[in-house]
Amino acid sequence: QVHLVESGGGLVQPGGSLRLSCAASGFSLDDYGIGWFRQAPGKEREGVLCITSSNGIAYFRESVKGRFTISRDNAKNTVYLQMNSLKPEDAAVYYCASGRVCSSYWSRYDYWGQGTQVTVSS
Q1: Rounded distance between C-alpha atoms, residue 92 and residue 119, angstroms
Q2: pLDDT attached to residue 110
Q3: CA nearest 50: which of 22, 27, 74?
Q4: Residues in the chain with pLDDT < 50?
């Protein structure tokens, strides 16, 4: 059974940091690109960034460059999203997804986690 499970979300003040995890089971995530998407209430799902199977990083949004980074721990079958200098506009449910390639289009991904809530507020 293929599963992706996000964790690490929570409440943080503007300027704070969070590290999200995307843990895979039923497959080895190092064979795939792992993308992060987010969806705020009343908004469309948007791509954030992706790590390729060869560990390159594709940024889908200029606004997160210099603040967000992504990494992979193959031993733990887990991908991490480190988010620094968080802003209120970063608040959303964050989802990880696996796909053959990294793409900003959510329809290109095969498996999705159920999401983890990130709240950025004073």
Answers
A1: 7
A2: 95
A3: 22
A4: none
